[in-house]
Amino acid sequence: MAKKSVSDTVVNERAQHFLKALIERYIRDGQPVGSRTLAKDTGLDLSPATIRNVMADLEEMGLVSSPHTSAGRVPTITGYRMFIDSLLTVQNLNKQEVEKIRKELMLGGGESAEVLKSASQLLSGVTQMAGVVTLTRRDKTSFRQIEFLPLSDRRILAILVTEDGEVHNRILHTHRDFNRSELDQAANFLNKSFAGFDMEVVRQRVLQQLNDAREHFDQVMTNALTMAGEIVNVSENKEDCVIAGQTNLMEFAELSGLVQLRKLFDAFTEKREILHLLDQFLDADGVQIFIGEESGYQLLNGCSVVTAPYQVNEEVVGVLGVIGPTRMDYERVIPVVDITAKILSAVLKKH
Amino acid sequence: MAKKSVSDTVVNERAQHFLKALIERYIRDGQPVGSRTLAKDTGLDLSPATIRNVMADLEEMGLVSSPHTSAGRVPTITGYRMFIDSLLTVQNLNKQEVEKIRKELMLGGGESAEVLKSASQLLSGVTQMAGVVTLTRRDKTSFRQIEFLPLSDRRILAILVTEDGEVHNRILHTHRDFNRSELDQAANFLNKSFAGFDMEVVRQRVLQQLNDAREHFDQVMTNALTMAGEIVNVSENKEDCVIAGQTNLMEFAELSGLVQLRKLFDAFTEKREILHLLDQFLDADGVQIFIGEESGYQLLNGCSVVTAPYQVNEEVVGVLGVIGPTRMDYERVIPVVDITAKILSAVLKKH
DNA sequence: ATTGGCACTCAGTCATATAGAGTGCTAACA
DNA sequence: TGTTAGCACTCTATATGACTGAGTGCCAAT
């Protein structure tokens, strides 16, 4: 409460202003920002020397650093963090752009796989970075129909259709051959028992009934249940992740190390890691930003990730976002990600 | 027949020997080969000066060239061509490696999509370059069964199963809603009419009958045929192409230009161009090699492609191969591609 | 608190020197 | 006639030093 503390906060406010200017400049040019440049950049009419003093303070606070004695200053990770958390002034997208996104996403015709792909491409196209859309919690849907078709060699093709029109199929290997009518019987039994039920429920029932089966049910039903068990499980863990525009990242000098770039690309084709990473943001609401170094994954050094979750019928089912260099234009990227998530949610809404 | 011509061919034979040695050396080291080095490399006991004379001849013939006056020689495209066409001594793979490939490919469990993916990964893994497998002529297969399921909003899910166990599904948009029994009727009609027929035949019949339909058939059948027409067409043009290990190419200095690398990667995600390129080798039998510059696609400059077609039941359905720097170890890559194609054909054989 | 001035540091650029690799040519040799 | 040794020459790569310009930190003046 003493004079000193008051003056402190005043200094800090101005310092923050400079920090903001510095980072915005750095994002534009990609080069260390010196006192002279910054002096011109901020509206305030101050001499470079003054700026230097402030920059020294900022450096002491760990918000900026200089690559070497006679270079300007560059934001540090914590500098970026502060910028993102409290200094950012996001622009709104103009209606034209919003409309473009909406149109683009409508094209897919409502087929979810298609739409997700468009969304990813859209994100990468608009931002010139890598776009990514994950689909983790599969839309809670219900059992519609199951069919079995005999193939040769004790193999059976199982087709499971869920209410939302997704088709899962899988080849099952059995211990003996089944003929067409046996399979039809099995399918009939299952369809009668489970049609319309929530998939989660189906899963439980199948397991449960399979336990009681030896005593109560005949062979047909046991077989049916066994097969159902297999395919029902498959349809569960189908996590997915669509990435687009990876090659855009090759343009950024800061990720220049071919080694790092390669690791990144490998992670993209592997997908698992990316998926795991983005899943952390499933439950956040609204846009989240995090900076590569904060994640522990060293392969994201120099990168930032901007994400937002999206919904189907009010329920979050995945996240979408953009991966690019930490030196990215957040003020533009944030609204893009935000809007895209909202529009995607709208498009995916089922009636 | 004069003395001169005889001596000429003698010179050429020796020159070819040197060319071979030079290219092999260059493939190993990646650096221009000088006369001294080459003198040691070839078994013959000749002085560097002699070698220089020969190299001058080779240069005159356009088989090698030197980047600058005081560097060694580097093979030219035509040099590589000659090497590949007539100088190459391919090694055979040892049984261990062959066995490894066979095992790896067996894993997929006969699901063709899976197996192709393994093949691609295998090629890239073994050669440390990019592996690619195309599937162009879809296995000539026959109609097994079709099903229609009503979704909401005048959308119908059509599921077509072919004899080889592939499942094609697609959402059809219709001009009015159909109920379950209408759809069942339609499916029944189609299944009875076409079960077991070759897909090509089915396609023709559908079109033909659709023409006659207005007069002879009732509404149900017309609808059925219309729907069948749509999905049958879809199942036709499903060309595909699986690429793996693209990032391996980042390791090669000769493709270092980020720009070229990016173009290459973009082509890989686009796939179309690659597919078109490889299709040229569908009808060649055995391993084919071609050098990027020869193709007209300037994006393959500095690259070579080694391909071999593979079959299902004696019929060629696609090609597989490896894309890497022109400076690649052909003597090893060729047998790998060759064997992989053979094993893949064996694995895909249907009984 | 702000500023001008000044000495200092450091990356980048240019010219120059030097070493090394390799060539082409010529003359000698078998 | 094919092969070889020798030699002058070319060109790259590398190191070196000088110089410039950008930018800093600090001190003393306002």
Structure description:
Two copies of one chain form a homodimer. The first copy, chain A, is α+β, with helices and mostly antiparallel strands. Chain A has twelve helices and ten strands. Chain A has helices at residues 3-29, 35-41, 48-60, 77-87, 95-106, 112-127, 180-194, 199-216, 219-236, 258-270, 272-279, 330-348, and strands at residues 64-65, 74-75, 130-135, 143-150, 155-162, 167-173, 240-244, 288-291, 303-312, 315-325. A five-stranded antiparallel β-sheet of chain A has the order 7-3-10-9-8, sandwiched between helices. In chain A, strands 4-5-6 form a three-stranded antiparallel β-sheet. In chain A, strands 1-2 form a two-stranded antiparallel ribbon. In chain A, β9 and β10 (315-325) form a beta hairpin. In chain A, α1 (3-29) packs across α4 and α5 packs antiparallel against α6 (112-127). The radius of gyration of chain A is 27 Å and the shape is elongated. The model of chain A is unreliable at 1-11 (pLDDT under 50). The interface between A and B is medium-sized, with 30 and 31 residues.
